[in-house]
Design goal:
It contains 15 helices and 25 strands. The chain is of the alpha/beta class and 477 residues long.
């Protein structure tokens, strides 16, 4: 790509090309090739973006449902028209294997299509008020109204679709949006801004501000912004919540997902799906398979098959359609993951596969006998590492999965409905996925977690509820 500086988008204006601009260099994690140079937004841009968003909100909140539907349908269609361009850019910016990048683009198209449909379904209810004498001959109407400016802060791992899960419901519900994209992949958000600018959505109501953490904190503190929707690490998310003031906050902070493989499971299916869940996109997925609990009767066979499968996974250049495990996002991330593997070894664990690396490409790694105090067990490793554990009873397995400060999603492979229901009733997670790994997500699902995984729910209809306020109207006849 060109090394000319790309401007950012502030309420209908492309800015940041004053001389000399502060810039973000975007480099391919696989080979460090320059992908592009983006101007960095500054403190003055924050106030301009907020002022314009306030003006834009006066327009967006009056948009009719059919207008919001048309805008979102346009966005979906234009992304689909440019799907090859978007997939190639995703692969370059974050090192995502091209097959996974294409899947993300397709999912983002669906996300905007879902939002377009939900824009026509935001309703309310009639509430009976004649429950006693003072309420006779009265009735109530409840409708949902947009809350104002939504600040969306997105991570690097799904820089198109996780942005869509913030931007699309905000547009569908009539809100204004200020997007702070990840510095690892800001270009894809600027391409999205080109489409939104042409969509008919009020231009003042949308901004993309690639900026420093300090500038982002200024946005979080601004009382004129009514909601923060953040996806990222707990180390960043909880401090942002602490400075957010009175605004509504939605946090998705990742996890270290557990999977149960019970005695009744289809072993071949469990191995095949968990291999992908653990290692696809180098494990850089919030709901990736990290801890696998296998019934003692199946453990040896499962382990042998899983280890062999991990060794067969294609690693390397993300441009190769056969690649499943490409680079992790930075050399620092690779060093952190390798340190976790080394710590597990030092604490007595055994590495059955992987553990090595070429540059930032880490081999799919399988570990047994992991201490519950090791980082490979109790933190979100966010890399191509899976740990295997034995259990004898469903109660023991559920307790093992719950032995975590996180609670985003979990999986269970079972054909015993009693075990499935026990797990569903007792696991401390936002979702339980049956006969599938916890990496499974369809974009209309309610998505979010408990404990250190955050709170609130994404998934278009559920995000719209977070981004709107119910208002009651009581009337007499």
């Amino acid at each position: 790509m060109s090394n000319s500086v790309l401007p950012y988008f502030v309420g209908g204006e492309w800015r940041g090309l004053s001389s000399p601009p502060a810039v973000i260099e975007v480099r391919n994690p696989y080979d460090n090739a320059l992908v592009g140079v983006v101007a960095r937004a500054t403190e003055p841009d924050v106030n301009i973006a907020v002022e314009r968003a306030l003006a834009g909100f006066e327009k967006t909140r009056r948009l009719q449902s059919h207008e919001r539907h048309e805008i979102l349908t346009f966005i979906a269609a234009k992304i689909n028209e440019r799907k090859d361009e978007f997939a190639e850019l995703l692969s370059m910016e974050v090192g995502k294997p091209i097959s996974a990048a294409r899947t993300e683009v397709i999912r983002s198209v669906l996300t905007y299509q879902l939002a377009a449909e939900e824009a026509r379904r935001i309703g309310g209810e009639v509430v009976p008020l004649d429950l006693n004498i003072p309420g006779q001959n009265r009735y109530g109407i409840v409708r949902r109204f947009p809350i104002g400016i939504v600040l969306a802060i997105a991570p690097f791992n799904f820089p198109l679709n996780l942005v869509a899960h913030k931007v699309a419901p905000a547009i569908a519900s009539g809100n204004a949006v200020i997007l702070k994209p990840t510095s690892s992949a800001p270009i894809i958000s600027l391409k999205l801004a080109e489409i939104i600018e042409a969509s008919g959505y009020p231009a003042e109501a949308f901004s993309v501000l690639p900026c420093s953490s300090r500038v982002a904190e200024t946005l979080v503190r601004d009382p004129r912004i009514k909601m923060l929707s953040f996806t990222g690490s707990p180390a960043v998310g909880w401090p942002l919540k602490a400075i957010a003031g009175k605004k509504r906050v939605l946090l998705e902070l990742g996890g270290n997902a557990g999977v149960i493989v019970d005695r009744s499971a289809n072993l071949e299916e469990a191995v095949r799906k968990n291999l992908l869940g653990a290692f696809v996109y180098s494990g850089q997925v919030c709901i990736k398979v990290q801890r696998i609990y296998v019934h003692t009767d199946l453990f040896d066979e499962y382990t042998a098959r899983f280890v062999e499968g991990a060794k067969q996974m294609k690693t390397g250049d993300p441009r190769d359609p056969a690649t499943i495990v490409g680079p992790v996002i930075t050399a620092e991330a690779a060093s952190r993951i390798l340190d976790c593997i080394d710590e597990a070894r030092e604490q007595g664990a055994k590495v059955l596969a992987g553990g090595g690396h070429v540059g930032s490409v880490i081999e799919p790694t399988v570990i047994v006998n992991v201490s519950r105090t090791s980082k490979a067990f109790c933190t979100e490793i966010f890399g191509p590492v899976a740990t295997l554990h034995k259990f004898s009873t469903i109660e023991e397995a559920v307790a093992g999965v719950n032995d975590s400060s996180f609670g985003l999603q979990a999986g269970i492979f079972s054909n015993d409905y009693r075990n499935i229901l026990y797990a569903y009733n007792n696991l401390e997670v936002g979702a339980l996925i049956v006969n599938e790994n916890p990496t499974f997500r369809v974009d209309n699902m309610p998505y979010g977690g408990v404990k250190d995984s955050g709170f609130g729910r994404e998934g278009i209809r559920y995000a719209i509820e977070e981004m709107t306020e119910p208002k009651m109207l009581a009337m007499g006849m």
